[in-house]
Amino acid sequence: MSQPPPPPNQPPSGGFGGPQDPSYGYPQQPGGPPSPPPGPPTGPPPSGGYGYPQTPPGGGYGYPQTPPPGQPTGPNPYAGGPGPYGQQPTTPMQQAPGGPQPGNNNKKILMVCAAVVAVAVIAVGTVFVVTKDDGDSQADKPGQSEPKGGDPDAGGDEPPSTVPKQDSDAEIAWEAPVPKGFEGELSKQAHGVLFSGGNIVKYEPDGLVAYNIKTGKPDWKEKFIRGDSCSMASTSSGGKTLVQWGAKCEKVMGFDITKGKKLWEKDLPSRETSDLPNADYAHLAVSGDLAGMSWTGGRVGYRLSDGKELWSSTEAGCSDQGYAGGENFIVLHQCLLGTDGKLRKFDQKGEQTAEWKVPKGVEVKRVFSTSPLVVGLSPQGLSSKLNNIAVLDEETLKLKKRIKIDPERYRITCQPSHALDSCQNAVVDKDSGMIMLETETYDGKERSTNAVSGFNLETGKMVWTAEPSVEGRTNPVGMHDGKLLTLEQGNYDGGGGVMSLDPKKGGTPKQVLEFSADEREKARDTYSNALYWADNTLFLVNTRLPSRIDDRTTWLVAIR
């Protein structure tokens, strides 16, 4: 099918020391015009609309920061060209201490989530082909593959499979109302959705609620005080997860989402016993029986089953800045202003088994998958946009491949926006060895549109780009039955629905669910959506309470 016109000076996938175009927010190379940003939408977007960008809150980890004085200048293989924040070129990192962990049967998660505005969930996959150790060389001989990674006790829970398959004509199956007393409270955030048994479990402003996927009726509800920025881990294991709560988000609990039962609860560690932390911008992660949380004032790890504390620190300076869970437990450790970054792997005892030293001048901003281990990088300093994707060996954390991406061409959204591992519109599939990214919008023949591109994790090359079946927004959702699911928003003339693509070849999208005007309108009217797919059902979930009067009942919508 036709491909969208790339911006001028579209960068190739390059090696470690190859020249690169200037990155977003950095000075341009002299002697040539800068690459223009993508064109604005030509059609009238809905206010606060489904599938359109929102401004993230300021501050906290993962936002642009002022670089420290006295940094050396010079080109960097990850940075966007020369400038005051550039660094000298570095060589590939050597293998860190630690060895392989026992293999496990990786679980393919059917539940996936895609950003339509700002949304949240981690994409997890299953086996892929290894490359040579230098991260830039050609792939090894076909058929060579790495051992299955991860801890045998780690991994996430699979979503349920209880609802019979429906025909392609989509219908709104049920809706859940906004909790009473919270209508129109725009400041209230509501991040966090998990699946257990036949339920979708949502973290609401006043506690956890499990909705029956088939009927939409609440199966159980656990009420407790939740501050505006409290979070929940994006994965569970054995039906158990980690939940942050309290008026100032100063508490944490282990929770069994299968039974709707609290396992244990504790106060987060603080510098003084009388000083309750205001734990903003928290990262919660679960992998097997290991759970961890990092926030602006500290970090702590627990044994999930009984709450035994495995590590704790409230020291400033160099510290754990973020956690990612799933098949492996990954730790981002770095110093102030994003310097001296290290990516580490922990075993089920909370002990480090491997480490990758992040090259100078570079920050790890996102973890797209922990098996395979795929992370997003950006230059240190002013830019928060990603310009490189690194593929690491999930046992040794040694760099295998670096994929350069144009920060002006690809759009990556995470919910909450500071989260390390909650970027749902960047889908990693281990079976095909691919990562799928959403492009920014550009002018189509009649209206604004965009596309989805697939990159091979072994070669680093972009393999395909697929446009939607009708002009309008399209977003990668996740993997289901070996196919990439995408959401097409459609436009005011029609179209819209859930489509499928071959992750290796792309091609023409095939329809899974076809939206009518009602589904398109419901999607647009939802203030901000997280998108999930489970039990042949599409879930549109508000991650922030709606403010408009006519949206006050739109909280969770099931379409199938």
Fold and architecture overview:
With 560 residues, the protein is mainly β. The chain has one helix and 35 strands. The protein has a five-stranded antiparallel β-sheet, with helices on one face. Strands 22, 23, 24, 27 and 28 form a five-stranded antiparallel β-sheet that branches. A four-stranded antiparallel β-sheet has the order 3-4-5-6, with no helix packed on it. A hairpin with a 5-residue loop joins strand 7 (240-245) and strand 8. The protein is globular, with a radius of gyration of 22 Å. It starts with 111 loop residues before the first strand and ends with a strand.
Give a quick set of tags describing it.
560 residues; mainly beta; 5-stranded antiparallel sheet; 1 helix; 35 strands; 34% strand; globular; disordered N terminus
